[in-house]
Target: Tripartite tricarboxylate transporter substrate binding protein
Amino acid sequence: MRSRLILAAAAALCMAAPAVRAQQTNLPNRPVLLMGGFPAGTQGDIYWRLIQEPLSRALGVPVAVEARTGASGNIAMEATARSAPDGTTVLAATSAMLAINRAVMPSMPIDTQTELAPVMTLFEVPNVLVTSTERRPAYTDCQALISIARARPGQLNYASSGIGASTHLAAAQFASAAGLQMVHVPYRGGPFAMTALYQGDADLFFYQSGPVLDDWRQGKVRLLGITSAQRVPTLPEIPTIAEACNMPGFVSTTWYGVVVSARTPPAVIDRLYREIRAVTDTPEMRARIEGMGFTMMLGGPEDMRARLAADIPHWAQVVERSGARAQ
Model:
Protein backbone atom coordinates (compact mmCIF):
# COMPACT_ATOMS: atom_id res chain seq x y z
CA MET A 1 0.00 0.00 0.00
CA ARG A 2 2.78 2.41 0.93
CA SER A 3 4.60 1.69 -2.35
CA ARG A 4 1.44 2.41 -4.33
CA LEU A 5 1.04 5.77 -2.56
CA ILE A 6 4.63 6.73 -3.32
CA LEU A 7 4.20 5.81 -7.00
CA ALA A 8 0.95 7.79 -7.21
CA ALA A 9 2.58 10.84 -5.62
CA ALA A 10 5.52 10.61 -8.04
CA ALA A 11 3.15 10.38 -11.00
CA ALA A 12 1.23 13.43 -9.79
CA LEU A 13 4.45 15.40 -9.46
CA CYS A 14 5.48 14.45 -13.02
CA MET A 15 2.11 15.55 -14.37
CA ALA A 16 2.36 18.85 -12.51
CA ALA A 17 5.95 19.59 -13.56
CA PRO A 18 5.11 21.25 -16.92
CA ALA A 19 2.55 23.52 -15.27
CA VAL A 20 4.98 24.48 -12.51
CA ARG A 21 7.72 25.07 -15.07
CA ALA A 22 5.46 27.24 -17.26
CA GLN A 23 4.46 29.28 -14.23
CA GLN A 24 8.09 29.80 -13.31
CA THR A 25 9.18 30.79 -16.82
CA ASN A 26 6.04 32.77 -17.79
CA LEU A 27 6.27 30.98 -21.15
CA PRO A 28 4.36 27.94 -22.45
CA ASN A 29 6.30 24.74 -22.81
CA ARG A 30 6.47 24.83 -26.62
CA PRO A 31 8.87 26.11 -29.30
CA VAL A 32 9.55 29.82 -29.74
CA LEU A 33 9.61 31.33 -33.23
CA LEU A 34 12.11 34.13 -33.85
CA MET A 35 10.81 35.94 -36.93
CA GLY A 36 12.38 38.47 -39.30
CA GLY A 37 10.68 40.60 -41.92
CA PHE A 38 13.41 40.44 -44.56
CA PRO A 39 15.26 37.68 -46.45
CA ALA A 40 17.75 35.29 -44.87
CA GLY A 41 21.18 36.87 -44.55
CA THR A 42 19.91 40.31 -43.59
CA GLN A 43 20.60 41.88 -40.21
CA GLY A 44 17.64 40.60 -38.19
CA ASP A 45 18.11 37.08 -39.55
CA ILE A 46 21.85 37.14 -38.82
CA TYR A 47 21.23 38.30 -35.26
CA TRP A 48 18.55 35.68 -34.55
CA ARG A 49 20.84 32.92 -35.77
CA LEU A 50 23.66 34.20 -33.57
CA ILE A 51 21.55 33.93 -30.42
CA GLN A 52 19.32 31.01 -31.46
CA GLU A 53 21.21 28.30 -29.58
CA PRO A 54 21.99 30.19 -26.34
CA LEU A 55 18.44 31.57 -26.18
CA SER A 56 17.03 28.06 -26.59
CA ARG A 57 19.13 26.94 -23.62
CA ALA A 58 18.04 29.94 -21.56
CA LEU A 59 14.34 29.46 -22.27
CA GLY A 60 14.46 25.68 -22.03
CA VAL A 61 12.49 25.18 -25.26
CA PRO A 62 13.41 24.74 -28.95
CA VAL A 63 13.88 28.01 -30.85
CA ALA A 64 13.33 28.33 -34.60
CA VAL A 65 14.21 31.20 -36.97
CA GLU A 66 12.02 32.19 -39.91
CA ALA A 67 12.22 34.97 -42.52
CA ARG A 68 8.60 36.04 -43.15
CA THR A 69 9.21 38.40 -46.05
CA GLY A 70 7.04 40.78 -48.04
CA ALA A 71 5.48 44.26 -47.99
CA SER A 72 8.57 45.86 -46.43
CA GLY A 73 8.11 43.87 -43.23
CA ASN A 74 4.34 44.35 -42.91
CA ILE A 75 3.61 40.65 -43.41
CA ALA A 76 5.86 39.72 -40.49
CA MET A 77 4.45 42.49 -38.30
CA GLU A 78 0.86 41.46 -38.98
CA ALA A 79 1.67 37.79 -38.28
CA THR A 80 3.25 38.81 -34.96
CA ALA A 81 0.33 41.04 -33.98
CA ARG A 82 -2.16 38.22 -34.72
CA SER A 83 -0.09 35.49 -33.04
CA ALA A 84 -0.89 33.88 -29.70
CA PRO A 85 -0.03 36.44 -26.97
CA ASP A 86 2.23 34.05 -25.07
CA GLY A 87 5.74 35.06 -26.11
CA THR A 88 6.25 32.21 -28.59
CA THR A 89 6.26 34.49 -31.67
CA VAL A 90 8.95 37.15 -31.42
CA LEU A 91 9.84 39.61 -34.19
CA ALA A 92 13.08 41.48 -34.86
CA ALA A 93 11.67 44.68 -36.34
CA THR A 94 13.47 47.68 -37.78
CA SER A 95 12.57 51.26 -37.00
CA ALA A 96 11.80 51.50 -40.72
CA MET A 97 9.14 48.80 -40.38
CA LEU A 98 7.66 50.38 -37.27
CA ALA A 99 7.89 54.08 -38.20
CA ILE A 100 8.63 54.59 -41.91
CA ASN A 101 6.06 52.15 -43.30
CA ARG A 102 3.15 54.03 -41.78
CA ALA A 103 4.35 57.23 -43.48
CA VAL A 104 5.00 55.61 -46.87
CA MET A 105 2.08 53.22 -47.28
CA PRO A 106 -1.46 54.45 -47.91
CA SER A 107 -2.86 51.64 -45.76
CA MET A 108 -1.29 49.51 -43.06
CA PRO A 109 -2.55 46.08 -41.93
CA ILE A 110 -1.92 46.98 -38.28
CA ASP A 111 -1.18 49.95 -36.06
CA THR A 112 2.44 49.45 -35.03
CA GLN A 113 1.98 51.46 -31.83
CA THR A 114 -1.12 49.72 -30.50
CA GLU A 115 -0.99 46.17 -31.89
CA LEU A 116 2.66 45.40 -31.16
CA ALA A 117 4.34 45.56 -27.76
CA PRO A 118 8.00 46.59 -27.48
CA VAL A 119 10.33 44.19 -25.71
CA MET A 120 13.72 45.85 -26.19
CA THR A 121 16.00 47.78 -28.51
CA LEU A 122 18.88 45.77 -29.96
CA PHE A 123 21.35 47.82 -32.01
CA GLU A 124 21.65 50.84 -34.25
CA VAL A 125 22.61 50.17 -37.85
CA PRO A 126 24.19 52.69 -40.24
CA ASN A 127 24.09 52.30 -44.00
CA VAL A 128 27.18 52.29 -46.18
CA LEU A 129 27.37 53.75 -49.67
CA VAL A 130 28.28 50.74 -51.82
CA THR A 131 29.52 50.70 -55.43
CA SER A 132 30.94 47.89 -57.52
CA THR A 133 34.65 47.78 -58.29
CA GLU A 134 33.73 46.55 -61.78
CA ARG A 135 31.65 49.61 -62.65
CA ARG A 136 33.03 51.86 -65.39
CA PRO A 137 33.69 54.69 -64.95
CA ALA A 138 34.88 53.73 -61.51
CA TYR A 139 33.44 55.57 -58.53
CA THR A 140 36.73 55.68 -56.67
CA ASP A 141 35.43 57.94 -53.90
CA CYS A 142 32.34 59.91 -53.00
CA GLN A 143 33.46 63.12 -54.68
CA ALA A 144 34.11 61.24 -57.94
CA LEU A 145 30.64 59.70 -57.76
CA ILE A 146 29.04 63.10 -57.21
CA SER A 147 30.99 64.63 -60.12
CA ILE A 148 29.93 61.87 -62.51
CA ALA A 149 26.29 62.04 -61.35
CA ARG A 150 26.21 65.81 -61.87
CA ALA A 151 27.63 65.44 -65.36
CA ARG A 152 24.98 62.85 -66.22
CA PRO A 153 21.71 64.07 -64.69
CA GLY A 154 19.04 61.37 -64.62
CA GLN A 155 21.39 58.69 -65.99
CA LEU A 156 22.68 57.12 -62.77
CA ASN A 157 20.42 54.94 -60.68
CA TYR A 158 20.42 53.72 -57.12
CA ALA A 159 19.03 50.44 -55.83
CA SER A 160 17.03 50.03 -52.63
CA SER A 161 15.51 47.17 -50.67
CA GLY A 162 12.03 48.61 -51.26
CA ILE A 163 10.08 51.84 -51.55
CA GLY A 164 10.33 53.77 -48.31
CA ALA A 165 12.97 51.46 -46.82
CA SER A 166 15.87 53.06 -44.98
CA THR A 167 18.05 52.17 -47.96
CA HIS A 168 15.73 54.22 -50.18
CA LEU A 169 15.47 57.23 -47.87
CA ALA A 170 19.23 57.34 -47.23
CA ALA A 171 19.87 57.54 -50.98
CA ALA A 172 17.09 60.10 -51.50
CA GLN A 173 18.56 62.19 -48.66
CA PHE A 174 22.02 61.87 -50.25
CA ALA A 175 20.78 62.90 -53.71
CA SER A 176 18.94 65.90 -52.26
CA ALA A 177 21.96 67.05 -50.25
CA ALA A 178 24.27 66.78 -53.29
CA GLY A 179 21.75 68.24 -55.74
CA LEU A 180 21.74 65.08 -57.89
CA GLN A 181 19.13 63.71 -60.26
CA MET A 182 19.18 59.91 -60.03
CA VAL A 183 16.67 57.15 -60.75
CA HIS A 184 15.39 54.99 -57.89
CA VAL A 185 15.09 51.25 -58.61
CA PRO A 186 13.48 49.31 -55.73
CA TYR A 187 14.08 45.59 -55.22
CA ARG A 188 12.49 42.99 -52.97
CA GLY A 189 15.14 43.07 -50.28
CA GLY A 190 18.80 43.91 -49.87
CA PRO A 191 20.26 40.70 -51.38
CA PHE A 192 18.40 41.33 -54.65
CA ALA A 193 19.60 44.94 -54.73
CA MET A 194 23.19 43.77 -54.17
CA THR A 195 22.85 41.31 -57.04
CA ALA A 196 21.76 44.20 -59.26
CA LEU A 197 24.85 46.14 -58.16
CA TYR A 198 27.17 43.24 -58.98
CA GLN A 199 25.53 42.72 -62.37
CA GLY A 200 25.92 46.38 -63.30
CA ASP A 201 22.19 47.14 -63.19
CA ALA A 202 22.64 49.63 -60.34
CA ASP A 203 25.25 52.33 -59.86
CA LEU A 204 25.08 52.56 -56.09
CA PHE A 205 23.26 51.20 -53.08
CA PHE A 206 23.01 52.44 -49.49
CA TYR A 207 23.03 49.12 -47.64
CA GLN A 208 23.43 48.16 -44.01
CA SER A 209 27.02 47.35 -43.28
CA GLY A 210 26.92 43.75 -42.02
CA PRO A 211 26.19 41.82 -45.24
CA VAL A 212 28.76 43.66 -47.41
CA LEU A 213 31.86 43.65 -45.21
CA ASP A 214 33.23 40.32 -46.46
CA ASP A 215 32.89 41.39 -50.11
CA TRP A 216 34.49 44.73 -49.28
CA ARG A 217 37.45 43.06 -47.59
CA GLN A 218 37.84 40.83 -50.66
CA GLY A 219 37.86 43.87 -52.94
CA LYS A 220 34.57 43.09 -54.68
CA VAL A 221 32.89 46.36 -53.69
CA ARG A 222 33.88 49.85 -52.59
CA LEU A 223 32.42 51.45 -49.48
CA LEU A 224 32.54 55.18 -50.11
CA GLY A 225 31.11 56.29 -46.78
CA ILE A 226 29.02 55.39 -43.77
CA THR A 227 25.85 57.21 -42.70
CA SER A 228 26.57 57.43 -38.97
CA ALA A 229 27.42 60.72 -37.24
CA GLN A 230 30.96 59.50 -36.44
CA ARG A 231 33.20 56.79 -37.82
CA VAL A 232 32.38 53.36 -36.42
CA PRO A 233 35.16 52.20 -34.05
CA THR A 234 35.29 48.71 -35.57
CA LEU A 235 35.44 50.13 -39.13
CA PRO A 236 37.70 53.18 -38.70
CA GLU A 237 38.89 53.16 -42.31
CA ILE A 238 35.42 53.96 -43.66
CA PRO A 239 34.78 57.73 -43.54
CA THR A 240 31.39 59.17 -42.73
CA ILE A 241 29.27 60.48 -45.59
CA ALA A 242 29.55 63.88 -43.93
CA GLU A 243 33.34 63.95 -44.35
CA ALA A 244 33.77 61.88 -47.53
CA CYS A 245 31.07 63.68 -49.49
CA ASN A 246 31.41 67.13 -47.92
CA MET A 247 27.91 66.97 -46.44
CA PRO A 248 28.14 68.32 -42.87
CA GLY A 249 25.53 66.85 -40.55
CA PHE A 250 24.52 63.99 -42.86
CA VAL A 251 23.19 61.10 -40.73
CA SER A 252 20.81 58.32 -41.72
CA THR A 253 20.63 55.29 -39.42
CA THR A 254 18.00 52.82 -38.32
CA TRP A 255 17.76 50.52 -35.34
CA TYR A 256 16.45 47.05 -34.58
CA GLY A 257 14.14 46.14 -31.76
CA VAL A 258 12.16 43.15 -30.54
CA VAL A 259 8.35 43.17 -30.53
CA VAL A 260 5.56 40.75 -29.70
CA SER A 261 1.78 40.84 -29.86
CA ALA A 262 0.39 43.75 -27.85
CA ARG A 263 -1.81 41.30 -25.92
CA THR A 264 1.23 39.58 -24.40
CA PRO A 265 1.28 39.77 -20.56
CA PRO A 266 3.92 42.08 -19.04
CA ALA A 267 5.52 39.18 -17.15
CA VAL A 268 6.19 37.36 -20.43
CA ILE A 269 7.64 40.50 -22.02
CA ASP A 270 9.90 40.97 -18.99
CA ARG A 271 11.14 37.37 -19.24
CA LEU A 272 11.91 37.73 -22.93
CA TYR A 273 13.74 41.01 -22.32
CA ARG A 274 15.87 39.53 -19.54
CA GLU A 275 16.79 36.38 -21.46
CA ILE A 276 17.48 38.04 -24.84
CA ARG A 277 19.55 40.73 -23.17
CA ALA A 278 21.53 38.16 -21.17
CA VAL A 279 22.50 36.08 -24.23
CA THR A 280 23.32 39.23 -26.25
CA ASP A 281 25.28 41.18 -23.64
CA THR A 282 28.34 38.94 -23.55
CA PRO A 283 31.87 39.84 -24.71
CA GLU A 284 31.76 37.31 -27.54
CA MET A 285 28.35 38.42 -28.85
CA ARG A 286 29.21 42.11 -28.52
CA ALA A 287 32.40 41.56 -30.53
CA ARG A 288 30.51 39.80 -33.31
CA ILE A 289 27.69 42.35 -33.50
CA GLU A 290 29.88 45.44 -33.18
CA GLY A 291 32.27 43.90 -35.70
CA MET A 292 29.51 44.28 -38.30
CA GLY A 293 29.46 48.04 -37.67
CA PHE A 294 26.44 48.02 -35.38
CA THR A 295 26.13 49.96 -32.12
CA MET A 296 24.65 47.98 -29.24
CA MET A 297 21.61 49.47 -27.46
CA LEU A 298 19.86 46.82 -25.32
CA GLY A 299 17.26 49.18 -23.83
CA GLY A 300 14.05 47.88 -22.28
CA PRO A 301 10.42 48.28 -23.38
CA GLU A 302 10.15 51.91 -22.25
CA ASP A 303 13.33 52.88 -24.09
CA MET A 304 11.99 51.33 -27.29
CA ARG A 305 8.58 52.94 -26.85
CA ALA A 306 10.20 56.39 -26.44
CA ARG A 307 12.43 55.93 -29.48
CA LEU A 308 9.50 54.89 -31.60
CA ALA A 309 7.42 57.87 -30.44
CA ALA A 310 10.24 60.19 -31.56
CA ASP A 311 10.93 58.34 -34.82
CA ILE A 312 7.39 58.37 -36.18
CA PRO A 313 7.18 62.17 -36.69
CA HIS A 314 10.84 62.36 -37.73
CA TRP A 315 10.48 59.83 -40.54
CA ALA A 316 7.13 61.27 -41.56
CA GLN A 317 8.96 64.53 -42.34
CA VAL A 318 11.76 62.74 -44.21
CA VAL A 319 9.24 60.76 -46.27
CA GLU A 320 7.28 63.91 -47.08
CA ARG A 321 10.41 65.67 -48.32
CA SER A 322 11.49 62.65 -50.38
CA GLY A 323 8.08 62.11 -51.96
CA ALA A 324 8.35 58.36 -51.34
CA ARG A 325 5.04 56.56 -51.65
CA ALA A 326 4.28 52.86 -52.00
CA GLN A 327 2.02 51.84 -54.84
